[in-house]
Amino acid sequence: MAQSTPLVLVTMGSDSDLPVLKAGIDILTQFGVPWEVDITSAHRTPARMAEVATQAAGRGIKVIIAAAGGAAHLPGMIAAYTPLPVIGVPVKATHLDGMDSLLSIVQMPRGVPTATVGINNSVNAALLAIRFLGAFMPEMQEKMVEYQAQNEKQVQDKASRLRE
Ligand code: RP5
């Protein structure tokens, strides 16, 4: 699945990760970010994963979100092949409840940074990607400011109702 001139590539190790990523993809759509969704397994399709990661920057992609569960090597391997910022989403996919994925993604060796969000938290991955875009796209930063204001208002409204 792709939109015209995608800025954010969302990739995952298996189609079984897709339900977890849906909420994040919805955020990208809500902010008007052109995205592309793909499946590239570090273990099952290593050559294609390397090709996709190597070519991403040249195609105009600015941020990569990579999700995987279990021995979650995908985000780190993609980060090894691209100069782009990579955000890893640990997916809860095994009997270890996502702790395996989280630790696999967050414990990258020095020199190969991979941002890591919470287990199954594709929403934060998308919001972080949008913040990266906002560094050079003022309209994205403006939308983020609006989003933060909405969040604040929602919490304040709930607090007001509790005080009533
Ligand atoms: C990982 O193994 C995938 O990212 C997925 O989270 C997990 C299970 O994959 P499937 O066996 O469902 O294809 O590589």
Task: Describe, in plain words, how this protein is organized in 3D.
The chain has 164 residues and is of the alpha/beta class. It is 48% helix and 15% strand. The protein has six helices and five strands, in the order βαβαβαβαβαα. The chain has a five-stranded parallel sheet, with helices on both faces. β1, α1 and β2 form a beta-alpha-beta unit. α2 packs across α3. The longest helix has 26 residues.
Topology, element by element:
Blueprint: E1 8-12, H1 18-30, E2 35-39, H2 46-56, E3 63-69, H3 74-81, E4 86-91, H4 99-106, E5 115-116, H5 122-134, H6 138-163
Parallel strand pairs: 1-2, 1-3, 3-4, 4-5
Residues 12-14, 16-17, 41, 68-70, 91, 93 line the site of 5-O-phosphono-beta-D-ribofuranose (RP5).
Subunit organisation of the chains:
single chain
Q: Which sequence of SSEs, written as H and E, runs from N to C?
A: EHEHEHEHEHH
**In percent, how much strand structure appears in the residues?**
15-25%
Count of helical regions: 6
Distance between the termini: 47 Å
How much helicity do the residues have? 40-55%
What ligands are attached or bound here?
Answer: 5-O-phosphono-beta-D-ribofuranose
> How many strands appear in the DSSP assignment?
5
Shape: globular
What class do helices, strands and sheet pairing give?
A: alpha/beta
Strand order of the largest sheet: 2-1-3-4-5
Rg measurement, Å: 16 Å
